[in-house]
Amino acid sequence: MIHFGVRLSVGAVLSGVGTITMCADLTGFPCAQRPSCPHSGLRGWLERTAHPTVACMEEVMALLARQGGIARQRDVRRAGMSRRCLRRLLKEGRLRSLTPDLVTNVAEPAADEQLRAAAIGLAATISHEDAALMWGIELATTPDRRHVTVGRNRSRLRHAQTRVHRADLSPDDRIQRDGVWVTVALRTVIDLCRTLPVAEAVVAVDSALRQDRVSVEELTGALRDLPAGRGHDRVARALLLIDPANGSVLETLCRVLLHLAGLTPPETQFVVRDSKGSWIGRVDFAWPDQLLVVETDGFAFHADRESYRADRRRGNALLLGGWRVLRFSWEDVVDHPDEVVAAVRTALGLP
Length: 351
What we know:
Strand order of the largest sheet: 8-7-6-10-9
Strand content: 15-25%
Order of helices and strands: EHEHHEHHEEHEHEEEEHHHHHEEEHEHH
Number of helices: 15
Mean pLDDT: 82
Distance between the termini: 106 Å
Low-confidence stretches: 1-40
Number of domains: 4
């Protein structure tokens, strides 16, 4: 016979608190005689069904903290939370749904939320342009899609507004940062050399070199170890054009543009002095034999009035020293490259 033996008051029922003196199992033995009984109280039953236990919530919060506030629902359930409890937390706003399979405990969407969602949802590694940005590597253009990498055997994976690359990454190719996997800086720039136009690839490599994210020795070693046929020629071409002395994205773009047009500057970051050997200034590109200087002016070229005046004084000193100066803006180099090439060609007296 089944014995239920439940003693509850009306108030206890309404408050969800009561005392169960006999377990509703097939034995009929009081729970007090079996402390390990999973049905030892109504409060425990409610916690297992609609309310998360303290231990469960701690484990789920730890999971979310490790992954930057985002987790897959299946991982939340593996941490001990029931489906009913998960639905309750979503309804109460203690968790927020990102996709049918992802939840977050961050109330307001973060700038990198969709990127993290793609990486965690696909069990992928952040790579290419997005990995570059995480490493502080400058890019010539802002990516319009997220970039992640998965194994070659996971061909059917898709995610909205995300470019899913496929490659078998070695343990040395990636590192965990803020709860997500990211390709290391060296692997990141090699990937960019494979996939970006050559000028944009060189921009990324130059930036990584300027910031000591990678070294020339590491790059040449990576090229040597790269199997033939996997973008080897594209990587080699980009690495031939690197110049970490270039001080900005615009300088690199202009230098590569001139190189591809057959007008490679013989000097970069060249120090100009007057006839007495006094310092005039450092210029972006120079053809000393022809007393020609090419300067690039970015958006924030003159940070204040004093830098503006200093630049004008230097320009005057170059002119008085017999140097000719061509200046090009971002729009000139990016939007009107043919005009830049034509101007330099004319200044050099070339047809």
